Amino acid sequence: MRIARSAVKVAAMTFTLCAATAFTAVPAFAHGSMGKPVSRIYQCFQEGPEEPQSAACKAAVAVGDSWPLYDWDEVNIGDADGHSRDIIPDGKLCSAGRDKYKGLDLPRADWPATTMPSSGAYTFQYQLTAAHEGTFELYVTKSGYDPTKPLKWSDLEDTPFYKQDNPPIVGRNYQLKATLPGGHTGRHLIYSIWQRHWPDSAEAFYSCSDVLFR
């Protein structure tokens, strides 16, 4: 009888552990991140959360562990309601002020960067796992941006160079057809805000994409 009861306990513990692992690996409340130019978190996820290749992603894991990278599409604030600048502190823009993603805020000049043209038309691709009604805004850092310092709101241009409600979806990507603002060269950062609409939700999603303007 004791042997049978022990077997049941082992089976139950095994099921619980497997279920917890499954829920950890597949985020339940997650919806997207910039895929082109790739966001920091999506880049690190693609490299492999347990053994990332780039120095910056290794540093992010050392600071914040590997498990947040599995939730690459969940850098969000549930009740942002259009007040992102008021509720996300300077120095924590890439993590949306969430300690879970603090590794994304590391100020360094070696984050993997996407090479982009310095002006003209460009189609951004926002990788999604769930579509929602909402508005996308894209900001670029000002001239003189220093990636070795914590990112502040004042480092971004005051107005977005792209703003669009419900852009088209092709495959698993929102297609954000933007005109690059010009006047930027070298390393910069593009910050995206995806603000969902009421009455659906006040939730917003955020991403940091490191770029090299040529």
TrEMBL record:
Keywords: Signal. The keyword Protease does not apply. It holds the Pfam family LPMO_10. Residues 1-30 form the signal peptide. Residues 31-211 form the Chitin-binding type-4 domain. CDD domains: LPMO_AA10. SUPFAM superfamilies: E set domains. It comes from Amycolatopsis minnesotensis. InterPro entries: Cellulose/chitin-bd_N (IPR004302), GlcNAc_Chitin_IntDeg (IPR051024), Ig_E-set (IPR014756). The keyword Signal applies. This is Chitin-binding type-4 domain-containing protein.
